[in-house]
């Protein structure tokens, strides 16, 4: 099974911790540990690393979502200074928590700081309690998110954007700095067919979560994907390329066969050094 077409990305440890997936060493890990991972992934040619967004989660969600979510803007701002090539992907930023011009300003600044390495991964969100906490509308988050996507496409790389939409309208306002990329990649996350439809019609890629490879392929077959459209699928399970290189190669190849243009990998690890060793071993494959 060929993996020659694969771009590989990492689900960054430490910055997000999921029950049953994260390792004990991550609990007390530091930004320096994260930077060492980012520097190694950068040197080894990985396509992007990730950081997710949650403001605050109900304590009752600990067993399902975990509770640790480092802020992506602060995290990526630091990692941008420690890396050169690897791209920085929000996975995902919740559209309903921000005005589009707020995103254009804050993440446009990140794009400038990182010399054009931003990938804006976005989603419409699903945690009602978090929406209510910050006073954001929940029931219409789908159409509101669609309008935000249209507004962002206009605003991300324009110093004086103009947009008129159902939920958002602006003009005569200067956003400086804005993104340095002429076309910032926008990827849509989610776990529904609707998220894929939103991605195909309004964005540049789809980065689903909690969607099996088989389900992803079935959904992808219903659309004619635009040229250059990115599909980011996770290799199933945790990869251990040091001890199980053939299995790691097979699972990455499987994700590609099911439609991935970029394969997100979660590595087995019991320490920072073990993670770095597996990162190297996977690149060597």
TrEMBL record:
Q: Name one GO biological process term.
A: alkanesulfonate catabolic process
Q: Which UniProt keywords apply?
A: Flavoprotein, FMN, Monooxygenase, Oxidoreductase
Q: Which domain of life is it from?
A: Bacteria
**Record-linked InterPro entries:** Lucif-like_OxRdtase_Rv2161c (IPR019921), Luciferase-like_dom (IPR011251), Luciferase-like_sf (IPR036661), SsuD_RutA_monooxygenase (IPR050172)
Question: Which parts form a coiled-coil structure per UniProt?
Answer: none
Q: Name one GO molecular function term.
A: alkanesulfonate monooxygenase activity
The keyword Transcription appears for this protein: no
The Luciferase-like domain is annotated at 29-223
Q: What is this protein called?
A: LLM class F420-dependent oxidoreductase
Which species does the entry assign this protein to? Answer: Mycobacterium asiaticum
């Amino acid at each position: 099974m060929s993996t020659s077409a694969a771009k590989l990305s990492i689900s960054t440890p430490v910055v997000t911790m999921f029950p049953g997936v994260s390792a004990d060493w991550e609990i007390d890990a530091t930004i320096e540990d994260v930077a060492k991972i980012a520097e190694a992934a950068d040197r080894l040619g990985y396509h992007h690393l990730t950081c997710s967004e949650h403001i605050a989660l109900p304590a009752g969600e600990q067993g399902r979502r975990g509770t640790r979510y480092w802020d992506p803007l602060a995290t990526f701002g630091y990692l941008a200074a420690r890396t050169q090539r690897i791209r920085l992907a929000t996975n995902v930023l919740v559209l309903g928590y921000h005005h589009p011009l707020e995103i254009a300003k804050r993440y446009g600044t990140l794009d400038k700081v990182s010399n054009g390495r931003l990938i804006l991964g976005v989603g419409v969100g699903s945690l009602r309690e978090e929406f209510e906490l910050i006073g954001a509308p929940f029931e219409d988050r789908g159409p509101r998110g669609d309008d935000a996507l249209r507004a962002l496409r206009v605003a991300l790389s324009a110093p004086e954007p103009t947009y008129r939409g159902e939920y958002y309208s602006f003009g005569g306002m200067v956003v400086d700095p804005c993104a340095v990329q002429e076309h910032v990649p926008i990827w849509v996350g989610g776990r529904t067919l609707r998220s894929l439809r939103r991605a195909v019609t309004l964005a540049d890629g789809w980065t689903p979560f909690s969607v099996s490879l088989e389900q992803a392929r079935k959904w992808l077959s219903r659309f004619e994907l635009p040229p250059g459209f990115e599909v980011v699928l996770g290799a199933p399970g945790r990869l251990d390329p040091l001890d199980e290189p053939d299995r790691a190669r097979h699972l990455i190849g499987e994700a590609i066969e099911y439609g991935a243009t970029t394969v997100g990998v979660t590595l087995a690890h019991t320490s920072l050094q073990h993670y770095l060793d597996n990162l190297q071993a996977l690149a060597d494959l």
